[in-house]
Amino acid sequence: MFRDKWAGALLLGLILGALGFYVGQQFLKTSSTTEELIAEYYRVENAVHVSPHGLRGKMDKGDQSFILVDLRSAEEYEKEHIVGAVNIPAYKDKYTSAYGDIERIVGAFRELKVQYGDRDLIVYCYSTPCMTGRKVGEMLASHDVFVKHLNIGWYEWRHDWNSWNHEHEWNTTTFQDYVTSGKEPGAPKGGAIPNPCIEGDLGC
After folding, report:
1. What is the homologous superfamily of the domain 50-180 according to CATH?
2. How big is the CA angle at 133 (ends 127 and 139), to the nearest 5 degrees?
3. Transmembrane ranges (predicted)?
4. What is the DSSP annotation of 120-167?
5. pTM recorded for the entire structure
6. Phi then psi for 143, rounded to 5 degrees?
7. Contact indicator for 47, 39 with CB cutoff of 8 Å
8. What is the signed CA dihedral for 197, 167, 76, 108, rounded to 10 degrees?
9. pLDDT digit string (tens) for 18-64?
């Protein structure tokens, strides 16, 4: 009987040891160095975020490789929005979110993908720290719809123009040329302002 208990304990020890070894190996496989985490962070940042300078440059060139989507309420969109943006509201009004209306939001973005094919979908919401774009982006990704995120929000685009434009542009650019009102997206003037970004992969 003692021998049976000893054999059972030995078997249990072997099983636990093997399990511990397996878990340790999996941890080593999934753990990352600081350098790897930094590299991954910047890969994600560059894959997701869109520079307002770069976007403005595309507008000025008449570039049609993207669709800009305003996530604010329909009322706020009609009052003023970034020129060329369509509206898929994630808010019922400026005080009430509509995050629970998943079917409508996902369906509207899917329609854009069908209509515009390979164009990038770029979302923006109220301000830089606003979480609406991030929450909607996560919602869409869970339904295999993938969007990019404008690196500033409506507030900075409309009310803090100089904060993200170069100092030498302050007297040559104005938000009025890039903002419109009404239910329709409106069309950028195109070609009015020289592209502020350098060309190539390192351009803004």
Report:
1. Rhodanese-like domain (3.40.250.10)
2. 160
3. none
4. EEEEE-SSTT-SHHHHHHHHHHTTT---EEESS-HHHHHH-HHHHS-G
5. 0.78
6. -115, 20
7. no
8. 10
9. 555 555 555 445 567 899 889 998 998 999 999 999 999 999 999 99
